[in-house]
Amino acid sequence: MKIAVLSQNPNLYSTKRLIEAGMNKGHEMHIIDHSKCDLIIEKKRPGLIYQGKELEGFDGVIPRIGASITFYGTAVVRQFEMMKVFSSVESQALVRSRDKLRSLQILSRAGLGLPKTIFSNYSKNVGAIIDKAGGAPVVIKLLEGTQGLGVVLADNRNSAESILEAFNGLQARVIVQEFIKEAKGADIRAFVIDGVVVGSMKRQGKEGEFRSNLHRGGSAQIIELTDEEENAAIKAAKCLGLGVAGVDMLQSDRGPLILEVNSSPGLEGIEAATGKNIAGKIIKYVERNVD
Ligand SMILES: Nc1ncnc2c1ncn2[C@@H]1O[C@H](COP(=O)(O)OP(=O)(O)OP(=O)(O)O)[C@@H](O)[C@H]1O
Ligand SMILES: [Mg+2]
Ligand SMILES: [Mg+2]
């Protein structure tokens, strides 16, 4: 098969592993930088131009689209779909998963556990928002944050109010969330492919840090999920329409609470923690759908 990995950086671990895993199975693998594709939009004959040539004969595409280029990257994925190329992540699902607010709404409608979350249109009444989130301490998150940056723990009401006022003043959109203390600075990442959890890890923030992101100095180890956690992860990926997803959850007194669902989950942490060939499982998923 001829498979494209959409990636802006051929040196990233995830990109390299997908190429390697595909080649190990005898596929013709190509790295395509979606930011450098031109789209041909015309009646009945959609096309893609890359490095001066029209792309042809692809069977599958594996998008690894960074958050900052969601708009254009999704257009490229959609173009592949119009050309009848199977994508490991549907363009629609990609857009949906990148909108944190919309994703949380979809997850809550599906009946999944979530930390209580308040979103407002820069409301001046910050006190009421903090109350609705259960009162301080609360977690305040920039909607477009990533890798733990833009996620703040406000210990008390005064700091929560001033942080909210500051973000409002900057016209930065935030959500205010109940702080799940019993998670103890850890979260769980479940890697879901085609409705099955293929690997899971627990990430623990460094000493004194409530954020467990590996980019913030957290560490990861393999974990066996409870049935409840496994079902929640599978359901979360399903309701967002993601064939490949990284589902992040907090372990709380009332069961697993979904934090977010990633549509381009990194492979390095999960492969290191589990020792599994997750890239190979993504290739197999593409194979099953192209056949
Ligand atoms: N409501 C909460 N209660 C307790 N801990 C939280 C809460 N929200 C987030 N955390 C911790 O902070 C970390 C970062 O939060 P989150 O995943 O929401 O943002 P992010 O990682 O910056 O976003 P993204 O994953 O999209 O890059 C989480 O992994 C978790 O450890
Ligand atoms: Mg996160
Ligand atoms: Mg994320």
TrEMBL record:
**Essential cofactor(s):** Mn(2+); Mg(2+)
Entry keyword annotation includes Ion transport: no
What's in the GO CC field?
A: ribosome
What Gene3D superfamilies is this protein classified in? 3.40.50.20, ATP-grasp fold, A domain, ATP-grasp fold, B domain
Signal peptide start and end residues: none
Q: Per its UniProt record, what InterPro entries does this chain match?
A: ATP-grasp, ATP-grasp_RimK-type, ATP_grasp_subdomain_1, Rimk_N, Rp_bS6_RimK/Lys_biosynth_LsyX
Q: Which Pfam families match?
A: RimK (PF08443), Rimk_N (PF18030)
Superkingdom classification of source: Bacteria
List the EC numbers from the record. Answer: 6.3.2.-
Residue intervals of the ATP-grasp domain:
104-287
A molecular-function term among this protein's GO annotations: ligase activity
Stretches of the chain forming a coiled coil according to its record: none
Matching entries from PANTHER family are given as: RIBOSOMAL PROTEIN BS6--L-GLUTAMATE LIGASE, RIBOSOMAL PROTEIN S6 MODIFICATION PROTEIN
Q: What is this protein called?
A: 30S ribosomal protein S6--L-glutamate ligase
